[in-house]
Amino acid sequence: MRRSLLAASFALAVGCSGTSGAEDDGKVFRADTDPDVQDSATPTDAAVDSALDGGASDAGSDTTKPLGPPYPIVLAHGFFGFEDFAGIGFITYFYGVKDDLAKRGEAQVFTPAVDPFNDSTTRGLELLARVKEILVKTGAAKVNLIGHSQGGLDARVVAHERPDLVASVVTIGTPHGGAPIADIAAKLVTDDRFKDVVDALAKLVGGALWSAAGEKTSLIRGFLQFTKPAVADFASAYPDMPGVSYYSIAGRTALSDGGSACVTADAPAFVTKWKATLDTTDPLLKIPESVTANGLANVPNDGLVRVVDAKHGTFLGCLPADHLDEMGHLLGDAPGVGSKWDHLQFYADVVGHLRSKGL
After folding, report:
1. Which domains are present in the chain?
2. Active-site residue flag, 34
3. Would residue 57 show up in a list of annotated catalytic residues for this protein?
4. What confidence tens digit (pLDDT) does each residue in 78-106 have?
5. FRET label pair with 250: which of 26, 38, 209, 344, CA 20 to 30 Å apart?
6. Within a 13 Å sphere around the CA of 18, how many CA atoms are in the beta-carbon half?
7. Mean per-residue pLDDT of the chain
8. Nearest to residue 288, comparing CAs of 275, 277, 299?
9. For residues 73 and 142, what is the distance between their CA atoms, to the nearest angstrom?
């Protein structure tokens, strides 16, 4: 049973990466740049910091005063994530979201890629470097960070390190309080040799992602960050910062309405409109959902993250979506029988909510 749970967890991570059926041409993601952030050369950290401290931006303005709201949107991917899988264009982590937002008039939406496997301290600092480049490119004073799953933890690192550059952090299905399946996995991988095996499997199955990330990355280090003790340490190291607006949203699946766990006085209309909609769990998430729900206890969750653990800052409520539906995967497939869940409309609503707050 334990082996099957660990295998399911690993298979799930691979499945979330969108690797199935895709050709590996070695161009999974650009670890050092976002094609929308830069042209041909990556500026040095010193050059970026100099520009942020008063140098001219690429926006073409003669003034050194950064631009105010509306601020650019930065979508931060989760564990085993990517910006553009295998360089083929249409398989993106936030499936179709960037293009849809552009059609709705949001021209400054960025999807930078960071190490797909590592812990959020490593990934967060990489994301911070990308944020700085985005600010230099756009001339904006700040960004709005929207993170799914581990991407929400990465965003918290950025906000803690440079709160002056972040207007808001919105987290979706982020394991702020940990993930039960990670605690189970932690008990199974106490042998360092087994940890090496897990990393070797990740390198084999997700080889292109691994190659792009570099040999210093580690799937096991990133995954074990979601244990209860690890997320507690993370919270102590990266507390919320004044001046940054923090919002969180959870997912609920397995035909659960979420019950009292999803009740919040701060729920906006774009969340409450989904109250009567229920979600069936994607087959890839069946075993993890059962573990996360604690069997017959039926704790509300999205297949990987419990509602109670997804709460952080101002909790906006729950969505009828499992962990894959939250970003439109797999490949934009239907969310479940009888469900009209629309992830593209959801992200448009999240951005609209930020704009209504003057962000």
Report:
1. 2-356 (3.40.50.1820)
2. no
3. no
4. 876 544 433 434 457 899 999 999 999 99
5. 209
6. 29
7. 79
8. 299
9. 10
